[in-house]
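Reading group handout, session on sequence-to-structure problems. Before we discuss, look at one worked example. The prompt was deliberately terse, the way you'd type it at a terminal:

> structure Peptide/nickel transport system permease protein

The input record follows.
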Amino acid sequence: MTGTATATLLRAFNTNKTSWAGLIVLLTVVALAALAPWIAPHDPIEQDIFARLEGPSALYPLGTDQFGRCILSRLLHGARYSLFIGIASTLAAMLVGSLIGMLAGWYGGRFDVVVMQAMDVLLAFPALILGLILVAMLGPTLPNIILAIAATSVPAFARIARAPTIAVKEREYVEACRALGYSDARILFLHILPNIFAEILVMSSLWLASAIRTEASLAFIGLGLRPPIPTWGGMIREGFENILDSYWLAMAPGVAILVVVFALNLLGDGLRDAVDPKLKGES
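And the output record:
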């Protein structure tokens, strides 16, 4: 099963070769973030008032900000926070939302109606507005930001997990499991989840990009991690005040977000092709 899934994924990636570009770029960014303490040329919070607002140079490849801090160093360290928040919030949303969707699809009836109507209410709020409300209520700390961003993604994962669960639960092998007296939990996690996980994985790659954008947006309006902690959204906010004179302050983190989001979308296209029934039919 694992070998077949891997072969299907590789075939999809080879068909849509831009997916390889997305994967390579994403892995490169993750590696740079992981190695930031060793490869960053300066301390990201060290200030040099005599070097404030310097343009790109040999000493400061991406220039310095209004406090004389190295933009490249802050960009590398900021990737650690921005990626961690995005990945943690997406994983949390995937776990909670998928469980809710599977339970709603499995039990159906009034439980399904009530749960999915609650998800529709959450979906009615734009992700940024809902995240803004939650962070403003809870406070801009790392756990609260992760919780707020995850809450904006839970309804989407619930809907993605519910539909295939309804389809899979009618198949013969699930009926056989019921006849053998297997518990609902065993059927859901051992027999249904493996068959719907591909759709959930595709969704997670696309919503990871959304989570990174939401974190940057929250930081830009002042609801991100408190300075001097570097995040990409916070760096854009700090650089916006000097955008006309020192464009590199906001441009560097802006380009970083653009590159990561674009890479995730390319990767999501490849994953989607791998689970596309039409593609499987052609193989």
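Points for discussion. First: The chain has a mean pLDDT of 84. Second: The chain has one domain: 65-275.
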